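Troubleshooting entry. The earlier prediction with zinc ion gave an output that would not parse, so I re-checked the input for stray whitespace and re-submitted. Clean input:
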Amino acid sequence: MDKSQIELLGDNHIATSVKTPMRADAFDRSDDEKIENIQSHFYKIMEELGLDLTDESLSGTPYRFAKMYVKELFYGLNPNNKPKISTFPNTYGYQRMLVEQDITIDSSCEHHFLPIVGKAHVAYIPKDKVVGLSKINRLVDYYSHRPQVQERLCLQILTDLQETLETEDVIVMVHAKHLCVSSRGIKDKESFTTTLEYGGKFKDDKLRQEFYGLLENNFKE
Ligand SMILES: [Zn+2]
């Protein structure tokens, strides 16, 4: 791919697949080994930019950067870090939608490695299984902490919840600001992006309207 194509793909935020593209040997090395390697690579980047790494304020940056990448921003790449989502039988027989809204999205764009920040709103209609509410937040957090494309993030949350809850009746909406749009390129500070994915009963327009209505009413409070 030539450099203009690389720029174009990034600015259009095109994802190539629903699964996060991973190498087969992604986890052959331990976190500590990764931190050590990334630290030396980032040291070289800083040096290339002309920074004096002997400066007290800068000298620890390569390590801080490497640790932040492996342990914080991209912890969600490693399936071992996936939160345990235990489900419970739907003993109440609750059959209406349950909405979990304003879940924090703290992610990063895979084209520029800059933050994506926003909110996710998730609803599902239980069949035989329900989950603890905070588990939805944890799942959103996990999939957010990868280099992402917003459309894929939305889909990954949806498909995981559909599998976990054993129902197609799930809807996921994500509103987010992309720092690669606000701080570089077009430098638009105000715009944000909305993505929506749903299945099962949420294909019914009336049910989606009910979901939007609930979100709107709750926003006003
Ligand atoms: Zn980007």
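This one parsed fine. The domain at 87-220 is CATH 3.30.1130.10 (GTP Cyclohydrolase I, domain 2).
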